[in-house]
């Protein structure tokens, strides 16, 4: 039986039940028009994902169930829709569920059985797991259901039920090379189960996470039938040859049916290069952070250096130049090329630009309190932070912080100074990657016959914080090429000092870098910002999404 | 058999393996001198608790095991020591364990079976659970072991083994009225198991948590035999009548023995009043945050109002007046009594005090950028924050933020302004409780014939942020009596709007307050401070303790 399956690679918003429901309806209608038998949405599409501690609010669970009930009556009844939502167990505990909707009824539900509780995931905190498999029959095809983490574990129990097809809604965040890992996993499970597998993932930014899509369909041998584009909303419609009546289904929706008369060509989107992938993740993450939090514009301090230029270039691609405000804030230690290069960036891109001299503010502090050395350097960064926040409060822009991962990891940053901002677009990007991305983005522009956004001098100049005369990053830090290699192993790879030394790095340098990272890590915690406050009695804060449209009021 | 059990209610430091080991040795020697047969330490005493994601560092697990091995050879071999530490499963996964140490050997280990994963706890993330009970025989008494969360679940399997005594190491954080809940639970489990139960808890501050001690021993009927003082380090030594040879132990340390010749009187410490409890929690939390992070002194902005006075009074009790630096930072909108009351507080307590006029700094910003209304108000708060951070950087004091829970919950606070600080002592205290605690602390002073620290006018004046002429909190907020009732129900009690309205609150007011709380909650997330940055690839930050002595370097 050739089953036509539509996979909705879309971008829901956490807490926006009404908006997400409208999106689900719209895509269901599209799928029906394409003669699809089934449409599958990403994990928890109705509430958005991840909902974090919103799962524990009774009022939110009840709103999710109510929104689902409304959707059941309004969705096109002649197509099977697989819709993720937040439900409750019989004892009132939160569940990460999908509903199988058909004929204006819920034909079945399935509860995610394997809850990830590592890295960015906290699902043991937020959900109780399900304990049963689900197989539904559609046009004679017995379809097994799994949700995201479920397929990272053995699905022997589902395999034993011999489904003719497996559908998997996901909320799988982007990481470098994650697409390769995903594909291999999807292929492995399909072969183990002996059935085609359709994996649908969401797109969009949600707080610190970016979902890259990368929806995949493979056949029972693991061969790719179709694959969606990365970082793009898309309805991927696929004809999947599926064996019929292979199982004893829990629910029969239809015993047999007619195949679509036309035949869809296989569609496998081209893969992006590493730099293109990262660039798209940064742009999508920023665009959604701004839009989903109902900002319209951003403001960023432009030092003439590479970090702030890269952040502003990401913002231009995410929001358009008219929504980006650059502010040069030179001090007496700023080089001549500082304001020149900031001005050149603004001219290249067409963003709004202004220049605020910070010397009068710095002087007023220096005359009121006694400040020397690092304390005096920090005042300059904090005057800049206060200036950006003032402009933000007055004009309504979101402030972007420009720190990169290398300098943040070793604590080369001023709290309440250059660290000020609601979103830090390149906090996960090492300095060497900052240069690589800037070069890549400029080359893309040149190849398209556009003006390269980032001034070449910003890329080539020696990094400096310009907080005292002739200061260079290399006064305080190892060369970035070397530093980034160490950080990649220590911070990302969790390799200890012994492993780093064994890998051939100088032992004094290893200990110096580890000491800097650990000190910075604790300093960030010793000075948790005023904003990270608990409003719980002697407890840590509730873990709620930064970005959400949910409020009871 | 009268078994003599020593319960070490002590204050370990997360990551300080050497210091904690020394503390364990010292208390073991003390217990031996008191002729105790067994000494029990709090949960994970060797590593400190909670270690959060440090559990996932192989180098930290290996350091914990090495420290345990050293302790085994150095502890007094003629007493049974029950010592919590971080171990690994055979597959290398982290475990929350206790070791039973006797005769310079590890006689047995037990792995925590129930992992809390709610509220402040993340143990599913950090540990794998154990799956077996442990009973050891000491002087013929069969002793069952459970760790903290274990006793919040049914211990039917342990009860079935019929131990003659149960020992429970804990890391149980303070909450209001937690002592009543704990006592009832300990009594219930002792009765269910049919054996005496000894519950030992730690003391001390760890990041946002405070451990209050409250070590309890009950007999098999649940009657309290002994109870330690709250918020004090103490070795509680208790004679416990325990039935012998009731079980089939996993390990036999000794089949019988001689009872101690003397007899200890039962010791049940008096309970503190609610205000005294909270005060002690605040003082202990601040003292340990400062000491464990290796600060020696604090700086706090003194507005003449009640919040900053209360924070400074807590700091004086925690650190002594000589370690507290008060800074008045009046603006043109400050009332006359602002600086007078700040000066009076300093005179009452003997803290260091200085006055920094902020008008010149505020004017320099106003002349450089266009700021009106709230944007202009915020500049004043941010100039104060920058001033405190400048003094902190120059002189090395930790900045204390003075926001209370009521104003933080509704967002009546300036990010990077009054929210600046490494620790916010009263962030969990509602405004009405701020007044009550100030009054209580002053009365305590008066009763002891001391000068009351907090000026009466600071307690009585109408709350104002003094950021514009004649501003009052009541311009923007409901009266605190009413606001705090609503916040207690909505924020702490997770009651929804329907429940609040049903409880008789005005529906417009309910919706207004909920909207303020939700907006503030999201604002705090939309502007996560520059400091809360991930150094992980597209992931959230590792969850490490703010306070820890652990570094590989």
TrEMBL record, chains A, B:
Sequence positions that bind L-glutamine: 118, 172, 178
Entries under InterPro entries matching the protein? C-N_Hydrolase, C-N_Hydrolase_sf, Gln-dep_NAD_synthase, NAD/GMP_synthase, NAD_synthase, Rossmann-like_a/b/a_fold
| Entry GO CC | cytoplasm
- Coiled-coil residues are none
Basic and acidic residues composition-biased segments: 458-475
Positions of the UniProt region annotated as Disordered? 449-475
Positions annotated to bind deamido-NAD(+): 378, 407, 523
Catalyzed reactions per annotation: deamido-NAD(+) + L-glutamine + ATP + H2O = L-glutamate + AMP + diphosphate + NAD(+) + H(+)
At the top level of its lineage, which domain of life is listed?
Answer: Bacteria
Record-annotated CN hydrolase domain positions: 3-242
Which PROSITE patterns does this entry report, sorted A to Z? CN_HYDROLASE
- What biological process terms from GO does the record include? NAD+ biosynthetic process
Quote the record's binding site residues for ATP: 301-308, 402
Query: Which keywords does this Swiss-Prot/TrEMBL entry list?
Result: ATP-binding, Ligase, NAD, Nucleotide-binding
Active-site residues per Swiss-Prot or TrEMBL entry: 43, 112, 148
Q: Which GO terms describe its molecular function?
A: ATP binding; glutaminase activity; NAD+ synthase (glutamine-hydrolyzing) activity; NAD+ synthase activity
What EC number(s) are associated with this protein in UniProt?
6.3.5.1
Q: In which pathway does it act?
A: Cofactor biosynthesis; NAD(+) biosynthesis; NAD(+) from deamido-NAD(+) (L-Gln route): step 1/1
* Signal peptide, first to last residue: none
- Chain's role: Catalyzes the ATP-dependent amidation of deamido-NAD to form NAD. Uses L-glutamine as a nitrogen source.
Which family is this sequence assigned to? In the C-terminal section; belongs to the NAD synthetase family. Belongs to the NAD synthetase family.
Q: What is this protein called?
A: Glutamine-dependent NAD(+) synthetase
Q: What are the leading ranks of the lineage?
A: Bacteria, Bacillati, Actinomycetota, Actinomycetes, Candidatus Nanopelagicales
- In the UniProt record, the gene name given for this protein reads nadE
